[in-house]
Amino acid sequence: MSKPTATPPLTPQFCFDTRVLRDFLRLSRASIDDSISTTLNALITPASTSPFDPASTSIRSPGPYPRPPIPATTTRTFLENVLFPSWNSRASVIQYCTSVATSPDPEDPDVIEREALNRRDAERVVDERLDPYSARFFPREARTEMLASVLRNEVAVEGIVRARTWGTVTDRCEGVGGNWEGEFDRWKEREGGGGTGPGTGTASTRTS
């Protein structure tokens, strides 16, 4: 069923469990963006009904070829009730976790072990003539650094996914043009939101 992705409860623990974080983003993209062509096909049938019911897209059919354009009113309702809220949900998660990754992390469970490793490395005697590998040291990353690396990748993926989805929407729907950033910005302003980029904006952190 095509319905907007709900934002999960946001806590630092959610962000630091990067498997859960990535699963949420992946499943949201799969249910909304990856199936955008099939979802748009399903919009053609209920287009004559008003108001549009987002749940109607749970019944999907390939439709006739060539496919007729989707009316602007139906498209607008879909964008404002399904697609944009799902994008916003993912953006909220990325924004919150980015602020977690850039905040102090006094509860890092590995901080003592990591500091001990760093001290031992500082005390090592390095003689590359006897052992050319003796100078090599690969410090363990803090969990905030690992989280930041995951988020950088997810921000890049999010931008690619949105551009691809928007290309499909503009090809199939009447009254849609321009870029997704502008349309999403305007929707956010109407909804009273803030920043709209895949990884921009602010969020409070350290709330468990």
UniProtKB/TrEMBL annotation:
Question: Could you give one GO CC term from the UniProt record?
Answer: mitochondrial intermembrane space
* Region feature (Disordered): 185-208
Q: Which domain of life is it from?
A: Eukaryota
The record's section on Pfam families has: MIX23
Name the family: Belongs to the MIX23 family.
- Write down what this protein is called: Caffeine-induced death protein Cid2
Species this chain originates from: Exophiala spinifera
